[in-house]
Amino acid sequence: MPDANLPLSPPAVMLRDLHVSFTMPGKQINAVNGVDLLLRQGEVVALIGESGSGKSVTLRAIMRLLDERGTCMSGTLSVNGKDVLGMSSRALAAMRGKDVAMVFQEPLLALDPAYTIGNQIAETIRRHERITARDAAARALALFEKVCIPSPQRRLAAYPHELSGGMRQRAMIALALACHPKVLLADEPTTALDATVQIQILLLLRELQRDLGLSVIFVTHDIAAAVEVADRIAVMYAGRIVEEGSTRALISAPRHPYTIALLNSRRHAAEQRGTRLETIGGAPPDLAALPPGCAFAARCSRATDDCRAAQPLAFDVEPDHRVRCIHTGMTAATARI
Amino acid sequence: MTSVSAVSQPHGDAGLLPRLDAMAVRSPSHRARVMRRLARDPIAMMASAIILALIVAAICAPWLMPADPFATSMLKRLRPVGTPGYLLGSDELGRDMLSRLMLGGRLSLFMGIAPVVMAFVIGSAIGILAGYAGGRINMLIMRCIDVFYAFPSVLLAIALSGALGAGITNALISLTAVFVPQIARVAESVTTQARRSDYVEAARASGASATIIVWQHVLRNVTGPIFVYATSLISVSMILASGLSFLGLGVKPPEPEWGLMLNSLRAAIYGQPIVAALPGVLIFLTSISFNLLADSLRMAMEVKQ
């Protein structure tokens, strides 16, 4: 239900205190623990973090793709002003692919091996729109041209395994854009690709986003990729967003110790031979038994008893730059770049 | 056999190209590709040729057979192979072996194929249901299946046939019951795999309902492996059916059937070993042909990168 107070165009995606937990035999995995995220129309937000930080789960939660069995979701979750958590399965199916589409990490696995790519795109279009097979095929061809696939007719008739990795990811993007979605969710779309192809796909995504006015959530653990495409970056750790801000602010003046460590762990790599790569000591916390306080405290050099006592709240260190750390005063002084 | 390198057209001049008619230029379908690979496999071709010859001989037996397979002759018992008028000899009642083998192929091949086809349909349905439903339903179905699976198949077939009584229909039922759990298990495992696959998640992400996912994505990807497994069961089924007839639980004499013929010629093994072995040779030939065909099929269906 759209709220009366909302502006004319509701945010593309709004998450308020989103919790996602999985019930396993004998334990409960708290994958997402109170995520607040606002994706405005036409904006690109990158979610970055280590494996297991909850970024992919958050992304899948937006489309409610997680297996209903054993998954518990709470909080507020809306897409284009529509409440997703309360949707019927029919409404969900109507929304998926039409309003929100997803680009997957490994296109070879995400495309059905039994159908040609053209067939899959046409099928997706006809699932949402009353349109003839011929028109759907024409749309598929136009999409292939849009994502810059050479000799598109021939490629439409190809099976997924017949294309190269880069081509497949382009085809996957074409499939995602088939029904003109407003919101695109990209789950590490470049991770499975060669370095040279990665940048092409990033540029393509950025270009399509500008042309079509898409709102994009881009999940990655590649900070360079995030900087390349994102307007804003949100850093996730143990199922929470620990720092969020404009790309420029977050990269040039990170405030959360985890973000600083994350940036340091790659910045030195480029510097010179012989210097040791800085790593973050320790391992991410067990999501089945999260500490009561800051989840990063165990690995943080600035951690104090206050950190371990209670979960730090997120607050704005400057406009549009929020951090979940009680030591931001200290980090502001030390995190000079 | 990767496609010839792309004649890449510079992007952007797509307007100059003929558009929709090009869609007609389809790359060969998966099925056509599998068939082409099979055609190039000499073993597969030989196996299919043997199976085809046996099936044709069995179907056309009434018209092709040289003598009456039921006409007995006490004077011409157990003639060796090559006797004039008895190309493959005669059996213990003086009946023409060639005619009996041809006519017997009907029942033997039927008993090899029919239970597997029935089990393929029933077992796939059960397995796909269990695999796609997952959770408790899967648990319930698969544990029931496991109970059947716990018995050796020969024992189970004999026990069921024995309980139901001798006869072709009962043998058919018991053989089907033997194969259903085996096929269901394969179907369940490939379906579970498909259900967890990225392409099913991607299909959900593009708004496909559960029905569409099962019919379009799961079924299409799952029937291939199940089919291959089922093909390999045909030989087992033939041997089990022959075994049931051998024990007197399947076909009733004087109806010719390879297993039954093998049984009744047992006594002649020292006098006419070649004649006595003929039904066994055919059982062996058929089952090994089906096995080799299943193997080739499995290899031909593998998607090569």
Describe the structure.
The complex is a heterodimer of chains A (337) and B (305). The model of chain A has no long low-confidence stretch (mean pLDDT 86). In chain A, 36% of the residues lie in helices and 23% in strands. Chain A has 13 helices and 12 strands. Chain A starts with 12 loop residues before the first strand and ends with a helix. In chain A, a hairpin with a 2-residue loop joins strand 4 and strand 5. Chain B has 305 residues and is mainly α. Chain B has a single domain (30-67, 92-301), classed as MetI-like fold (Orthogonal Bundle), CATH 1.10.3720. Chain B has helices spanning 30-39, 42-59, 61-64, 97-133, 135-149, 153-164, 168-195, 198-205, 210-246, 258-264, 273-301. Chain B is elongated. Classes of the chains: A alpha/beta (337), B mainly alpha (305). The A-B interface holds A 63, 65, 69, 89, 93-98, 101-102, 104, 106, 109-116, 118, 123-124, 127-128, 134, 137-138, 141, 145, 148, 150-154, 156-159, 161-162, 175-176, 178 and B 2-3, 6-11, 14, 17, 19-20, 22-23, 25-27, 30, 134-135, 197-199, 201-209, 212, 216-217, 220-221, 303-305.
Uncertain segments of chain B: 1-27
CATH architecture of the largest domain in chain A: 3-Layer(aba) Sandwich
Oligomer: heterodimer
SSE class of chain A: alpha/beta
Q: How large is the radius of gyration of chain A?
A: 21 Å
Order of helices and strands of chain A: EEEHEEHEHHHHHEHEHEEHHHEEH
**Could you tell me the strand content of chain A as a percent range?**
15-25%
Q: Averaging pLDDT over every residue of chain A, what do you get?
A: 86
Sum up the overall morphology of chain A in one term: globular
What is the assigned CATH homologous superfamily of chain B? MetI-like
CATH class term of chain B:
Mainly Alpha
